[in-house]
Amino acid sequence: MGIFSSIHKNRGLIIALAVSLATVLIYSSALKAHASTVYYQPYTGEPVTVFTASGLSDSTYVYTPNYTIDPQSYPISQTYTINIPGSFNKIRTKWAGGTSCSKTEATLQGYDGNYALTTGSGATTTQGDNIYCDYVFSQTYGATTTFVGVVMDPNFSPPTPIPELLFDGSGLNSGASYYGDNTQAQLGGIAFEICLDTCDNFFTESSNTNTRIISLSPANNATVTSPVNFALHAYINPDDLTTIKGIRITLHNIDQNVLLLGDFSPSDIYLFEGNATTSGDFLFNQTVPLGDGNYRIEACLERTYFFGWVLNPFAPLSDCQNHQFIVGTSTFIGGISQTMFGQTNDFFEGLTATSSEALASTCNPLTNFDIRQCSAYLFIPDGAGLKNTMDQARQGILSRVPWGYLSRMVSIFQNSATSSLPAFTATLRTGPGSDMTPDETSITIDIGDMIAGGGALLDSIEDPIHGKTARDIFEPIVKLGISIIVLFTIAMDLMGSHKHADGDSRQKTKLS
Amino acid sequence: MITNLLLNVVVLFIGAIFSWLPQVTTLPTIMGVDVDGALVTGVGQLYQFTDTFWPLGYMFNGFIFLMGYYIIKLGIRFLLGHRGPAH
Fold it and tell me: pTM (2 decimals)?
């Protein structure tokens, strides 16, 4: 009797066990504990917020303002100031890259216009895997309302170009800075911790080390001007290196592609397409001049797929983000396409509830009851939860002996890292020489060099009109053809397997 | 929500059944030969080769995918017993 038959027979016991486990799972998710003195301002004009419960926003970059303190340009206002309770003498930010902490200073500017600088430049503090910039004041300040900023001091830095300094406002504390205005389009933001002697380091309630896209710019539904700055910040967990195929950033011109299938569009621009060979933070930044119109930027952390589209059950799902934006002025058809895409995206994104509180508020028959949303929340699986479930299945089930060996082989085949081809050395005798020192010479045959040369030759042959190589032209056709052959073989095999394997089958014989 | 819950329960249940089995991180060494290292190097060299001769890469992927299908079919036939698909 098969295993599934046994499950069917004992379904009552299994359901009872499932309900018990479900109760434990729901109440165990209520663990929340956070104590922090972290403040965060997403971008200019937004209030500086005190975070005391949940973590900081993941979609952040941090900007370094003008390197001179200019109250005329950055006036004190309610949106910039924060009320700091208690005493403090230190400001801490989390360094993520770029120039060193010593080239920056932190400032406090009182609401009455007075300001105080740190005694000197920022000091680098390393604790565990984290690196912080600490700015220590010469005195301890009491509770105050103030404006906090971090500047790059011209005395320490060349006037041009201003080196970038990466701070962190995200859950993982990695961001990119831009010299210039900290606008919403730049996704700028700064997180800083106000401390008295000792900072507690908790920029988030829990460190998020999941492989994911943290931020992407331009922002969704933004209107920007050319040239457009594209930026991506992603994080790759070391455990996911073997299952991450690569990182791809694709720019779609909606106006040209609105009637075309995405994969066959000739106008997509691959801003970045590469393998993920190292874990940690991935930062991409590029400025591209674009004509007026409607565009969509898609960033994907691609998991290993077969033929680019068949889901690999041994790998978690891809993580993709789409942001639509307008350069200059929108076109009619591009605007319609963007609206449709945005509504469809919002529909499915909005129909998942990641917390029991959201579910309860929508399904409450006394208030805000919506049968459609309640049903969707109940039955449509949440993407993040689905991903976690598949991660658990991979780690807890698929990696066990003996099928774990198969999983390991699959992950080896999924890893797209390459190894250099071997080289062979042959020793040839060229002359009589002597018994002690024969005349010899050696020949080295490096297969890698031979193939690399052939590859370069193939890629150099281009279509004179469109500038496409043979691979650009024939690759989609070859990919489609092989996919069809494989799927056809599987379909034929399935069609011939509809009869059960019956050990008692009797063959009908025709009596003559 | 319910779907996520059910999937989590199924994964937890199956994981609990097989939790006593050891986890596999690398392939074993057989008779002094590091099978894992050899396979990693070999596959890496194959991908280096198919970087240039890209049609072979797709053919290889197709072959692996087809073999995966046959392995899954074998597994289903093992689990379902006499209700499994025929040869």
Answer: 0.39
Q: Compare A255 and A133 and report the one with higher pLDDT.
A: A133
- Give CA separation, A151 vs A103, A111, A118, A466, in Å: 9, 18, 11, 48
What pLDDT is recorded for position A104? 67
- Report the sign of the C-alpha dihedral through residues A459, A461, A464, A465, in that order: negative
CA distance B60 to chain A (A): 10
Q: Distance between CA atoms of A136 and A118, rounded to whole angstroms? A: 6
Angle CA A210–A345–A307, to nearest 5: 65
Give per-residue pLDDT as tens, B14-52: 878 887 888 888 888 888 888 888 888 888 888 888 877
Cis amide leading into B85 (omega within 30): no
Sign of CA pseudo-dihedral A306, A307, A311, A317? positive
ipTM of the complex: 0.82
What is the nearest CA distance from A261 to chain B, expressed in angstroms?
22
A419 to B41: CB separation less than 8 angstroms, yes or no = yes
B30 touches chain A (CB under 8 A): no
Helix (H, G, I), strand (E, B) or coil at A277: coil
Give me the sign of the Cα torsion angle B13, A23, B6, B23: negative
User: What is the residue-wise DSSP string for A205-220?
Assistant: SS---SSEEEEEESPT
Contact B7 A389 (CB under 8 A): yes
CB contact under 8 A, B54 and A18: no
Task: Give the CA-trace dihedral at B69, B74, B78, B82, to 10 degrees.
Answer: 100
